[in-house]
Amino acid sequence: MSGRLEGRVSIVTGGGHGIGKAYARGLAKEGAKIVIAEIDAAAAKAVAEAMTKEGLAAAGGRALQRVETPEDLVGAILFFASADSDFVTGQTLVVDGGSCMR
Q1: What confidence score (pLDDT) does residue 58 get?
Q2: Domain annotation covers residue 96
Q3: When you count CB atoms within 10 A of the terminal residue's CB, does the N or C end of the chain come out lower?
Q4: What is the arrangement of strands in the sheet containing 64-67, beginning at the earlier edge strand?
Q5: Is residue 3 part of a domain?
Q6: Please, which residues have CB within 8 angstroms of residue 90's CB and are 6 or more apart in sequence?
Q7: Which pLDDT belongs to residue 102?
Q8: Which residue has the higher pLDDT, 45 or 76?
Q9: Element (H, E) at 78
Q10: Beta bridge partners of 9
């Protein structure tokens, strides 16, 4: 599949559930290679496998899973709270730590 994101890598936190899962699928449909960063390892694996079977992931022909911890978000939070982030334009970074309201 080719699209606007061909040749790019997207890391989707919380990609195993809800809107994160929808983001991962949408980005993959546009040609992005997907890394599903998720605290729920079983959900990450299930989504990665399903996307791979559907041909939606391009990272070596498969979606990748990465189990994350809440501590993984500290860098992103510090960055966005600093003046360094003032020049970030045209980028989307979904930072939800893989959490899912239940």
Answers
A1: 43
A2: no
A3: C
A4: 9-13, 33-38, 64-67
A5: no
A6: none
A7: 42
A8: 45
A9: helix 74-81
A10: 33
* pLDDT tens digit sequence for 19-75: 989 998 998 888 888 888 887 888 888 888 888 888 886 444 445 566 666 676 677
CB 10 within 8 A of CB 25: no
The answer to whether residue 101 is domain-embedded is no
Strand pairing category for 9-13 and 64-67? unpaired
Name residue, tokens 């992005």.
32
Domain that holds residue 32: 9-87
Alpha carbon distance 35, 66 (integer Å): 7
pLDDT tens column, 87-96: 766 566 666 5
What's the total number of domains in the chain?
Answer: 1
Distance from C-alpha of 28 to C-alpha of 37, rounded to nearest angstrom: 15
Is residue 69 one of the residues assigned to a domain?
yes
